[in-house]
Design goal:
Elements (H helix, E strand, L loop, with lengths): L18 H8 L5 E2 L6 E2 L8 H10 L33 E7 L2 H10 L7 H12 L1 H7 L3 E4 L4 H7 L3 H13 L7 E3 L11 H7 L4 E3 L1 H4 L7 E4 L2 E2 L3 H12 L5 E8 L5
Parallel strand pairs: 3-9, 4-7, 7-9, 8-9
Antiparallel strand pairs: 1-2, 5-6
Helix pairs in contact: 4-7
Bound molecules: zinc ion (2 copies).
One zinc ion binds next to α2.
Length: about 260
């Protein structure tokens, strides 16, 4: 529930509305617009109209279990696809709703701003349904967000990966553990190539000793919004594994194609 609905509402010329009443109002369905196509929907909490929801589920086709890129329906998905075989990642498996294009790209861009934070649970609902089997196979015991550098976090007041991790933890009934710290800021990684990305990410993450105890030796889900070359999730996974946490499954909303 949105924090604002927990506060008493001051109606003009009235006394403060009791909290119980505002909570009851929060349970009612209000119509609204679909987040993607702006068509009218009966319950705005659903966020998406049925057509757009179908489109998102269609995007969640067969994917490589190692790097989350789409693959043909008969491909061997467990041992890596044509694109990732021979590549080394820090994580053991990866899962995305689907390719970073169309509605997935649109929603990821909106999620980047704090005003889009409420999208996180909607996207996680789609992910958890579309990728239920992969998530169950991970047998994870905790959810770990990819952190932002503290300066960036302060400037943006928000980390979309943490919003997603929180929603996923809630959905799966697992704890969210802030096990990682970003100790060095990085420049905009999309400007540089694969090798440079991996080089720049070295030593960027460290673990938070205090929060590690609960997750030592257990499988975890590492959550970010998108996966491009895998440099960020690899560096974060390596930091976790060095500290004795794992196996690690990278969980993202969109998988950027064409950059590996
Ligand atoms: Zn729609
Ligand atoms: Zn692959």
């Amino acid at each position: 529930m949105d924090d604002r609905t927990r506060l008493p509402i001051n109606l003009p010329g009235s006394r403060i509305v009791p909290r119980r009443l505002t909570e009851a109002v929060g349970d009612l369905a209000f119509p609204g617009d679909c987040l993607i196509c702006d068509s009218w929907i009966e319950d705005a909490r659903a966020g998406l109209c049925l057509d757009c929801r179908d489109e998102l589920f269609d995007a969640a086709g067969p994917a490589c279990q190692r790097c989350a890129l789409p693959v043909g329906p008969f491909a061997d998905r467990a041992s890596g696809c044509g694109d990732c075989s021979g590549r080394r990642y820090g994580f053991d498996a990866a899962v995305a709703i689907g390719p970073y294009e169309g509605p997935i790209r649109h929603l990821c861009l909106r999620l980047k701003s704090v005003r889009g934070a409420w999208l996180a649970p909607r996207l996680i609902d789609v992910l958890a349904e579309a990728r239920a089997e992969e998530l169950a196979n991970a047998e994870a015991r905790a959810v770990v967000p990819v952190p932002l550098h503290p300066w960036r976090r302060l400037r943006r007041r928000y980390n979309q990966s943490e919003a997603l991790a929180q929603a996923l933890a809630h959905r799966l009934g697992l704890p969210m553990v802030r096990a990682l710290r970003r100790v060095r800021p990085t420049s905009a990684l999309w400007r540089v190539g694969r090798v440079e990305r991996h080089r720049q990410m070295q030593g960027v993450f460290q673990t938070n000793q205090k929060s590690l105890e609960a997750i030592l030796g257990v499988p975890v889900l590492l959550v970010d919004d998108i996966l491009t070359t895998g440099a960020t999730c690899s560096a974060a996974s390596r930091a976790l594994k060095r500290a004795g946490v794992g196996p690690v499954m990278a969980v993202v909303i969109g998988r950027v194609e064409g950059k590996g």
